[in-house]
Amino acid sequence: QVLVSSSKWLQIHGLKRNKLSLSQILSQIGFQHRRDYVTTLGKLVASRYADGLFPQYKSAHDGSVYNLTAKEELILHFVDCLMGAIELYKQRMEWLTSESRQIFGVIQERCIVIVLDFGSVAPAEFDLCRDALSMVLVEQVTQIAKFNLIRVAQDLTKWQEKSTPVSEHTVKSAVAWLWKLDHMTAASLTNSAEALLEALSDEAVSS
């Protein structure tokens, strides 16, 4: 799937965009039972000609009442559309909470620098971190434009001097570099700040 935010995804696949919100469906399968102000009487009067003629639905959201006039075929059509939307939402949720996205979220920037601060993790956890980073490089970084890796340490280490265009070769190179890193003792807070400043000094990186 394309790396887009959920708000952008909903602009395409959301219920309102596809005219499947409750109010939109009600307006297509019936008409609103209205109360209008009658000047001669000086008060609000509800229309009564539809009473008993149609099934009615009262919206819990705003209390409005709709007279339902649609045939069964149209209602079943909306049932199918809503079931399809539910399935699409489930797929999106499963995708958002799987693999590298459950750790890093969805990368939306076109150019990124990943700052690696392993802290005082044990050797086994160090390998787990590298597994996760390898996963995000292969699954998400392959879909953006440029990237770089900086390792927080007493002597700051960079994969490349500046962010590099993404290609199959550069991603493989970054993964190989990642797995050649040695396990070290925790760096200081000053080292972490220096690595972040170095990342932000790359002109291609917006944030």
UniProtKB/TrEMBL annotation:
What protein name does the entry list? VWA3B protein
Source organism per entry reads Eurystomus gularis
